Records
---
Amino acid sequence: MEDVAKAAAVSTATVSRVLNSPELVAPETAARVQRAIQDLGYRPNVFAQGLMTRKSRLLGIALPDIHGEFYSELLRGADAEARRQGYHLLISSEARDDESGLIGSAAGFVAGVAVMLTEPNEALWKQIREASEPFVVIDSDIGAAGVDRVLVDNAIGTRDAVDHLLGSVKPERCYFVGGPRENFDTEQRARVFADTLSERGHRPDERHVRFGDYSVDWGHRCGGEILAAANGEPIGVLAGNDEIAFGVMLAAADRGLNVPGKVRIIGFDDTRLATLLRPGLTTVRVPMAQVGAAAIAALIARIDEPGRPASCTRLPTELVVRGTSAPAKP
Amino acid sequence: MEDVAKAAAVSTATVSRVLNSPELVAPETAARVQRAIQDLGYRPNVFAQGLMTRKSRLLGIALPDIHGEFYSELLRGADAEARRQGYHLLISSEARDDESGLIGSAAGFVAGVAVMLTEPNEALWKQIREASEPFVVIDSDIGAAGVDRVLVDNAIGTRDAVDHLLGSVKPERCYFVGGPRENFDTEQRARVFADTLSERGHRPDERHVRFGDYSVDWGHRCGGEILAAANGEPIGVLAGNDEIAFGVMLAAADRGLNVPGKVRIIGFDDTRLATLLRPGLTTVRVPMAQVGAAAIAALIARIDEPGRPASCTRLPTELVVRGTSAPAKP
DNA sequence: AGTGGCGATGTAAGCCTTTGCATACGTAGA
DNA sequence: TCTACGTATGCAAAGGCTTACATCGCCACT
């Protein structure tokens, strides 16, 4: 920096000002300094900057698990947005509640953290609240007040999915095969499923709303039980994610039941799998990349303006009709 | 830090030493300082540290594209290893060759960068070489000399796959349906495919070794052409990745050809898709998580010991036999 | 008893920026 | 012509840490 200052015949203070508040410096001087910067290939030292300003252009993102395309899509959107705004993204594959987690160990050198919480986690939640950095929460409804959040609006897609099912299946024949009971998304989807069905005249009981995990295996197993109980009458299944839906397809195949003829299946997430299957899986699209981008955008907004009121972004879900659901009645 | 020093009745220098070179400090003093650190919840300022030591505990990882589980698996392994060694991981979804890429923009505050290069990219390569940080290259054979590299040993898996195919298909009936011609992996796999077949008595021509892209669609299309030319005789296909393999399965299904009866198919990568398909896809497993971990390990080794000779880690691939290939002859 | 050396600790310089305050100059208004 | 103010720039402190060098006991040796 000193070299630049010398080359441009100014003080280091002016060089700094050219970089940080150009409006304070005379245009000709600024131009001269810029040239010197170019010529010497000067790049400010990030550490010194951080030391002075106590800010960094680093954002953390903590996911329950970077696994599968679901999260990679989220990461993709988040990274794109961060980059667009001149930030870098630090990842943590485990939203751990101990020191080894991002929150604990990155404390102090990230400007903020986006945390994805898919299940209640008191310890982690406490740790986040006590951290000094700004943060936003992804996909979690807890700790609602005064916290920036980015959510998936499961209601829209779920409602549409149920109505789509009801186009060709009786309400009593509709099932929801969810993921883990504690999972926020599954929980919401289950509730909206039940509510929508109730509005349409049939309150489903616990045999119609099932919880397990997000695996093909669970879908296969649960699908088998449901089909066994259905006695061949056409049924509709809304799954908690695409893998479960695929499991249900497998269960139907086991019994030689045609999909969508005898069993209409709708997945959730619209992962790659949904497009690959034959017949193509009707599913509810969840815009993960947008969720990631929105989270980063919200985080940066908070960093730039700490006093702003807490935001809550809801990204819409959307039913994507493919081959595993009967077409709506004409 | 000053507070800690005061609380432990030592100087800040001693506090620093306790943290960085405990062997220089008397055990009792160290204990006293540690207590003070605990009590006051002191955490060293990363920026100040970086300013002094010109080092950071940040590692960059640049991928061609963080997309799909292939890369997310890599990232997972890399992050785990980085965390284990007390580093943080900065991601870049695009290994761009301009300023906006990780290499350009993170220059100066990462201790090193792992770059994944799946195709030749002169500009990026040049940029990397000129960067001041240490770096390791993933999956790329270029710029061989003096550079740390982590590679996938495609040979083992490809050879095994070909031999597996030859267990029930004539050499003239074996095909390779690859991804992009320039892609390092596809290129290697194609070569080993051809070599192995040659050793077994049949040099394949360009009709038997095809290039396209890594998509289901290409597999479908190319598989269709191959099957059309095969006149119903049993054939074997080694695909450049699992998606292509799936495309070929689709092509077989179009023609009502049984898999593995009439068409034996082997994929590459062992992605989730391979386990989900029915029949299960025989495929060559590529240990992506290990690749990521090895890359980070190599990077840290280089950082710790800049003078060490360049390393080259080769992770083995392994044939995983499932349902789409005929069982080997008894 | 005197000295050399070693282990433990303190002192203070320096790492590179940012920024509050001071300075210098020029201009407009009185 | 003088004052007052605004604009462009410089000066220097501060930010938290590491580390070379200095210091100080203390023990072992001559």
---
Amino acid sequence: MPAMSEAPESKPLGAGRQLLFLREEELRLAQDLLFFGYRDFTAGPDAILAELGMGRAHHRVLHFVGRRPGITVGDLLSILGITKQSLGRVLTPLVEDGYVTQAPGRNDRRQRLLSLTEKGEAMERRLFERQREWVMRAYREAGPVAVEGFRRVMLGLMGPEARAQLDRAQPAAAPGAPKPRSAA
Amino acid sequence: MPAMSEAPESKPLGAGRQLLFLREEELRLAQDLLFFGYRDFTAGPDAILAELGMGRAHHRVLHFVGRRPGITVGDLLSILGITKQSLGRVLTPLVEDGYVTQAPGRNDRRQRLLSLTEKGEAMERRLFERQREWVMRAYREAGPVAVEGFRRVMLGLMGPEARAQLDRAQPAAAPGAPKPRSAA
DNA sequence: CCTTTTGGGTCAGCGTCATTGACGTTTCTT
DNA sequence: AAGAAACGTCAATGACGCTGACCCAAAAGG
């Protein structure tokens, strides 16, 4: 159906181009980019974590607990989208090794509110810095406009639930970048 | 640290802003976006694969073999960045179940050149279509400019080796989008 | 007060995907 | 003939996810 020959003579351009930029090859490229990009994005922290006998799952816990100190186990579970058991296998050692503290909730004492200890914060920061350098390089090479586009696309790749959780985590837009995400 | 009030009085803007858009919060947002985005990006194919008793690794093989028919096992290994054993556990069943064919290389008969069978192509297409819808939605919502920015950033997130492999896979830029990637 | 629901933890077992180390075969190269 | 390369395979290990079942303590509601 798409004109395979060199010159797209008969088909009018313009509006058609708007739809055609979703051609198959462009989507296959997106698959490649996401696969390689995500893999290399996580490679740095993975190396640090491996030295300490931890894995990517530990990093996620440190990351999200660090972002929301006092988060409940249940909220963390729904953010990560894993089961209680899977979280437990990672969270329990983190608590035992002094990276994460549990405090009973004031309103509901059944809850264990999770926060990072100093050790946990230091660890998270170390992982973050590694990843920061990597992302910073990509951001710098691509430029601010590209970064904004990257954010918009990634946000679109997220499901509705994930988007809602992200919005909850980002209570207000950063003062320097007050661009509403839904503005098409 | 960033000026929270409306008028950023003392700090000079301009070049500073160029560096400040890499503030910590923006990078933490990038972490979130990549985590949620990649997870939901792979969720569709994962569901299909699970029904067939396959996993993400099978999809990767189908994808990259489909992109480069006649690829050698060694090349596939270096693309995927996994070990021979890990690939074997996934590739052998794919060959046995008739998704992938092996043909001895003409120049070097030690090589097993891999290609998709019709069954394999159908399977890959099914997975692709699922993902296509998802990405297409995100692309459409974000717009062409954002998509270009997304590509630039993702490319920057890739390591040099991955970038080289991608370039080898994309022998020439798509005729409709002749934007050189390295132009900064 | 007593029952039910909820937040959290845990034990057992399973599957996928990756790893390392070692060994074997065929084929190409020198 | 010797070595290296391309591919395959056996065995063991570990990270990370899952389900099912069961437990405790605290909250909620009759």
